[in-house]
Amino acid sequence: MSRALYTAASGMQAQELNLDNVANNLANASTAGFRRRRLQFQDLVYQNLVAPGSAATQQTTYPAGLQIGLGTRTASSEVIQQQGDYNMTGNPLDLTIEGQGFFQIQLPTGEVAYTRSGEFHMDSTGIIVDAQGNQLQPAITIPAAATNVTIGSDGTVSVTLPNQTQSQTVGTIQLANFANAGGLSSVGNNYFLETTASGNPIVGTPGGSEGLGSIQQGALENSNVDIVTEFINMIMAQRSYEANSRVVKAADEMAQTINGLTS
C-alpha cells in the first residue's frame, strides 16, 4: 500500500506546482509584455516486477512484462513566446514588437536584460529608460527641446526641434533574439536573462535579415495569457489533485482492512 501512497503524493505535489503556475499566469494577465509559462511533467522510475523480454520458459519470453510506475514530477516550466494582443495608447514612447525579438535593457549590475514590455519613458537627462529607470540599449537621448518624437518600424528614432522643418535622427533601437527563447530565465520586472539553454543573443535591426520583428510606435503588447485557457488548466489541476487524494484515501482504507485481518 505504501507504493500507492507515495505515487499519489507525487501527483498531488505536481498539481500543487501546476496550480502555482496557473496562479502566476492569471496574476499577470494585465502585465504588458508578459509571457505565460506552461509546466511540463514526466513520469518517474519504474519497478520491474517482470522485465519485458525476460524468459518465461526455456523457449518463450514475456512480451510485455510487469512494470509499476512510481509517480510523476514537474520537469520544466517553458516560456510560451506567443504574440500578445496590441493596446493602442498613443504615447510616443510606448513601443510594440510585431514579431520576434526583445528590447535590450542595461541593468545596474552591468548585465543586459531582455524584455517584451515597451513601456518607456525619459529620465531627467532625456535618456530613454524603462519603468525601473534602466536604460534602453543602445542608449538614446531625446533633446529637451524636441517637440515631436518619431520611431520608425526599423527602430530609427527621430525628433523635431524648434525652428527646424526637417527631423533629426538621434539613434536607432536594436532588438535581440535567441535560438531558444523558451530557455530564457525570468528574473522579475518583465526581465529575461540569457542562459546556456537560450544561447547567445542575436542582435540586429528591427525588420532586418535576422528575422527580427518590426517596431510599432504608440502601442503596447498585452500579456499573452488566455484567461479561459488558464481557468481550464486550473479545473484540470484541481480534478487531478482530487483524484490523487482519493487514491491516498483508498490505499489507507485498504491498509486498515489488512491490519484488521492480521490483528
General description of the model:
The protein is an alpha+beta fold. It folds into two domains: 2-81 and 225-262, no CATH class; 86-221, no CATH class. Helices cover 24% and strands 31% of the residues. It has helices at 2-27, 227-262; strands at 37-43, 46-50, 66-69, 72-79, 86-88, 95-98, 102-106, 112-115, 121-122, 128-129, 135-137, 148-151, 156-160, 168-172, 175-177, 185-188, 191-193, 202-204, 214-217, 219-221. Strands 7, 8, 11, 15 and 18 form a five-stranded antiparallel sheet that branches. A three-stranded antiparallel sheet has the order 12-13-14, with no helix packed on it. Strands 1-4 form a two-stranded antiparallel sheet. The model has no long low-confidence stretch (mean pLDDT 90).
Provide key terms for this protein.
single chain, 263 residues, alpha+beta, 2 domains, five-stranded antiparallel sheet, three-stranded antiparallel sheet, 2 helices, 31% strand, elongated
Oligomer: single chain
What is the number of E strands? Answer: 20
Largest sheet: 5 strands, antiparallel
Number of helices: 2
For the CA atoms, what is the radius of gyration? 27 Å
Distance between the termini: 17 Å
**Helical content, roughly?**
10-25%
* Number of structurally distinct domains: 2
